[in-house]
Each structure stands twice: as C-alpha cells, then as structure tokens.
What does this fold into?
Amino acid sequence: MTLRYGLIGCGMMGQEHIQNVALLEGVEVTALADPNDEMRQAAQTLVGSDVGTYRDFNDMIEQESCDAYIIATPNDMHLEPLLRLLKYGKPILVEKPLCTTLNDCRQALKAAEESGVPVWVAMEYRFMPPLAELIRCVTNGDVGQPIMMSFREHRFPFLNKVKNWNRFSQRTGGTLVEKCCHFWDLMRLVLNSNPLRVFASGSIDVNHLSEQYDGQMPDILDNAYVIVDFENGARGLVDLCMFAEGSYWQETASVTGASARVDAMIPPPESFLPDGEKRVPLVEISHREDREIFRYETPVDPEILHAGDHCGSTFYQHVNFLDLVKGDLAKPLVSLSDGSWAVAIGEAAETSVKTGQSVAIVPP
Ligand SMILES: NC(=O)c1ccc[n+]([C@@H]2O[C@H](COP(=O)([O-])OP(=O)(O)OC[C@H]3O[C@@H](n4cnc5c(N)ncnc54)[C@H](O)[C@@H]3O)[C@@H](O)[C@H]2O)c1
It folds into this structure.
C-alpha cells in the first residue's frame, strides 16, 4: 500500500519536501494546498498531474484522505493548519520554527497533548550527515563530558520569499528564532540539558537596508553573537553573519569536552558554489592528551544532495518520519516540546538584543 502525504505550503521548502519524498519507497504526495498559483503549479509539476490541488488548505483537508501531512507555510502560518489537522488523527510534520512566539507554541503543545496526534517538528539539522556524526561522537563519549558547543554560520543573506514574509520579525519570530532555532535544538540535544539564560548582541548592518515593503523597512537581524547558559553548567555560542557568502564553510559546529573536541564543517549548497565546484562536509576529532587529529569526510549521495539545499538533511528526516507514519517508530524523534524550547531560546535572545540585558529563559 502506498502512503499518501498532503502538503500545505508549496514554496521553496514545500518543493524540497516533494523532491525528497519522491526518493522514498511506498509513499507519495497526493494533495497540495497553496493560495499562490505559481508555487502550487510548480509543486504540481514536480509531483505529477494526478495530485489534488487546492488554494485553501481547509478544502484539501476536507476533500482528500491522507495518511500524514506536511506543513511548510510561513512561520506565522504553522499554527492554524496544525490546530485544524490535529482533529484528523494523522501524523504531522511541521516546519521549523514551530511558531513565531512561545505563547503560540504553548497553544500547539496543549492541543496536541489533548489530541494524542504525533507531531514532528522539522529540526532537520539533527539528520544532516556531518551533524549526525557529531551527535554520534558526543553521545558515544568521544569528547568526554561536553562543556562547550558553538556554531558559526557565515552565509548568504535571507533569500526572497513569497510575499516577503521573511523580512519581518513579526512573521518569522526574528532571525534568532527563524534561523537559529536549529542551533538551539542541537545544543539542548548534544549538551543534554535545558537552557537557563541567554545574552545576545546583534543588529541589521548590511543586508536589506535599501529594501521597503508597503513602506516598511525589514527589521530582521543580519548578524549576531549569542551566548546561552545551560542548567548543567555547559555553555553554547552562536556566531551568525548573513553577509558572508564567500565563506568556505557555511556552518561550523564544535563541541568541546574534557578530553577532546569534535568539529563538523558544512559547505554552502552546491548552487551557491562557483560553477562545478564540490565541497564535501568534514568531521574532525582533536584529542587533548596525544594531540591526535582524526579527520574524515561525510559525503552525501549526489541524488540526495540535489533533492534540496540542506546537505541531505531533508531526506534523512523523511526516512525517519516515514517510520513514524508506518508505525515503526513509537513517537517523533523531534517533539513539539523540542520545537517549543527552540522558540523559547530564540525569543529570549531577540529580547536580549533589544534590551541589552541577559534574559532568563522561560520553559515552554
Ligand atoms: N528545515 C529547514 O531547514 C528550512 C529551510 C527553509 C525553510 N524552512 C521553513 O519552511 C517554511 C516555508 O519556507 P519557504 O522557504 O518554503 O517559504 P516560501 O515563501 O518559499 O513558501 C511558503 C509557501 O507557503 C504558502 N502559503 C502561505 N500561506 C498559506 C496558506 N494559508 N496555505 C497554504 N500555503 C500557504 C505561500 O504561498 C508560499 O508558496 C517556513 O516555516 C521556513 O522557516 C525550513
């Protein structure tokens, strides 16, 4: 039996989901919803003419029978379809960040708990081969007790999106929610602790300064440093710069423990590299005592790599989500609580930028 997925939101990420689902056996996207004709038609072209297409997701939900749903709408448009879908009892994969505010996350948490429906938040960086390897190393005890974790993301500016929703904090939650939620999620996972407080400094200095939408200037940060303290004494750091598309690595993650350090180096998507250039993700483990360094590549199969812009993570996330849909996995590997914590940290970090003070993180 082929499982049927319904997709709500057919923009860049929705189309990446379609391309990755197409690489899996036993599942297909059978219904699409998006009010934007261009995006809906582009998605239909990827899936094939048999797919049910709808402008309004409510019509899709009523008229199509699906085994699972994917929500890939703008950040401020996750909650509405999520609350609606919870009534149908089928597993849901909702894009990150779960919502734009902690209050909205709490509403999602409460409704999902009452419904018992499994909801998976798309923190797909957990499944990116170099980061999955970093997680494995730390979990195996290769670095000893992890004490510090840092991410440097130096990359290209935010891309243009449908109706420019990503230019405004009100619609995204702000850069430290929208972009950095992946990092907060990985920190909680790897450091195995919840955050206590955050201090952040950031501003919009280079990008979007000459842009205006309906007379409004974008207000999203394009660079920031953020420090997070965790309950178990570990600490995290994010160094974000979104006017650094010339960087060799787009992201570098480091975890340092008492005995060693592990680094994961992630290149930009191939479409952002000079013509024909290929860069393979790397993992490096450096030991303190004997100063030995192990360096190895974590290549991604080209077919998987080219089905998206996220170093294979969308595919591996879908492999696991499919196990949930089939009933082979008891619960989502990334829970609503995980997704809510990531928003809680990002929201507190945005407040810290505005106030110049460290901000206590309120649990979801
Ligand atoms: N996991 C990741 O690493 C990753 C990467 C990129 C984007 N995202 C997330 O994916 C989501 C979508 O981002 P995107 O880059 O595809 O944006 P996008 O603007 O390219 O696409 C969003 C689509 O949603 C549609 N939409 C808006 N309201 C809708 C509604 N009521 N019903 C159905 N469709 C609606 C828009 O018309 C648009 O086609 C965002 O939450 C974003 O943060 C996640």
